[in-house]
Amino acid sequence: MTDIDPHRVKAGRIRDALLLMATESPAGKPIGPDAVARAIVGKNEKVWRRLMKPIKDEAVRLAKDGKVILLRKGKPADPDRVRGLYRIRLRAEGESMPAYEAPKPDDDLLDDDFISDDDEA
User: Which of 20, 23, 26, 68 shows the greatest Cβ crowding within 10 Å of its Cβ?
Assistant: First the structure.
């Protein structure tokens, strides 16, 4: 399987592998995108790492379609804002779409950092 060029893997193949693995996962246990990549192209890390971005793109599409739920730190993550390590689980039949928490403002930005029109001299 390691002779597959990761740049030639089509979105449909990624989607099929992702959904199959999520379906076969015991009791809705989430799967990692790295496991999907290894299932498609094999164990060579230099090869499967190149699939991480296309897998994330497909996972986001599936989440927006309501087929999977992306998890970050064990909680549902907004597909438009998921960053860092995440996992994927199949959305159970009849399960409602999760309500995502509003993004937290940057702690680095304080109101004092902004100049209002009144401050101009």
Answer: 68
* Distances, alpha carbon 10 to alpha carbons 38, 45, 72, in Å: 15, 19, 26
Q: How far apart are CA 17 and CA 73, in angstroms?
A: 23
CA–CA dist 110, 121 (Å, integer): 21
Output the average pLDDT for the chain: 85
pLDDT of residue 1: 44
**Stretch (H or E) spanning 76:** strand 75-76
Cα separation, 98 vs 52, in Å, equals: 24
Q: Per the domain annotation, does 56 fall within a domain?
A: yes
Specify if 1 maps to a domain: no
